[in-house]
Amino acid sequence: MATEKNIPWFRLISAETRKTIDTRSALAVVLALGGLALAITIISVVAGIGLSDSDRPGSEFGAITTLGAAGVMMAMPIIGLLAMTSEWSQRTGGMTFLIEPRRWKVIVAKTAAAVVVAVALVTVMLLLGAMVAVITLTARGDPLTTSFLGQMVRAAYLQTILMTLIGLAWGSLLLSSPLAIVFVLLAPIVLDPLAVLVVGPQTAQWFMFSSAVSWIEGGSSFSLAVVTSFVLTCLAPWCFGLWRQTVREVR
C-alpha cells in the first residue's frame, strides 16, 4: 500500500517539467515549433509580410520580435495536453501515483510544468526575434523604435499561457491525446463560428474560445464575457479533469 510522502513542490514540478519534454512526441513538437516559428520570422521579414501597421506606427521592431512567438503560441495547446495525458497514454500513472499518491498535487505540478516550458519556449523565440529585428532594421538603415514593444511582448506571454492552459484543461478532461488534439484544434474554428451563427455574436461571446484571446490581443475591451469565456473553456474543464483523474482507476 502506498504511503504519502512529502515531496517538495519544487522537486515535483522539476520532475514534471523534464517529463514534459522528455517524451519523443513532446520533444518533436517543441523542436518542430521552434523551427517553424523561426522560419516564419525569416520568411516574413524577407517578404515584408505583416511588419507594418498603420494604426501603430513605429511598431515594426515589436512586430518582427513577436512573429516567431505568435507561431509558437498558437500550437501551445498541444504541449499542454500532451503533458496532461502522458500518464494515461503511456500507462505510467501507476508508478507516478505510487511515488506521489496525492493525485491532485501531481496534476497541479503538471500544469505548472507545462506553463514553465511554454514561457521558456516563447522567451527563446522572442530573443531570436529581437536579434532578427535588430539585424533587419539595421541593414535597412531604419531606426530601432521600440514603440508598442512592451504591449506586444506582454500579449505574447499572456496568450501563450492561455493557450497552454486550454490544452491542459481539455487534456485533463478527455485523457486522450488524439481526442484532445482534435478538439483543441477544431473547437476555435468550428464551435466559435457555429455559436455565432446559432445564437448571435452578443450571446456567443460569453462562451467562445476566442473571447479571452481577443481581449489579450487588444481586439476587445475587458468585460465579464472574457471571464466567463475563460471559466467555461479553461477553468471548468480543468477542474472536472482534476476530479476525473483523482477518481479514475489506474491500469
Tell me what you see in this structure.
With 251 residues, this protein is mostly helical. It has one domain (9-247). The protein is 78% helix and 0% strand. It has helices at 9-22, 24-47, 60-73, 76-89, 93-99, 103-140, 149-174, 177-199, 201-204, 210-216, 224-247. Helix 1 (9-22) crosses helix 6 (103-140), helix 2 (24-47) runs antiparallel to helix 4 and helix 3 runs antiparallel to helix 6. It starts with 8 loop residues before the first helix and ends with a helix.
Fold blueprint:
Elements: H1 9-22, H2 24-47, H3 60-73, H4 76-89, H5 93-99, H6 103-140, H7 149-174, H8 177-199, H9 201-204, H10 210-216, H11 224-247
Give the proportion of residues in helices.
over 70%
- Major sheet details: none
Number of helices: 11
Percent of residues in beta strands: under 5%
**Which structural category do the helix and sheet elements fall into?**
mainly alpha
User: Termini, distance in Å?
Assistant: 16 Å
Task: Quickly describe the structure.
The chain is an all-alpha fold. The protein is 78% helix and 0% strand.
Features:
251 residues, single chain, mainly alpha, globular
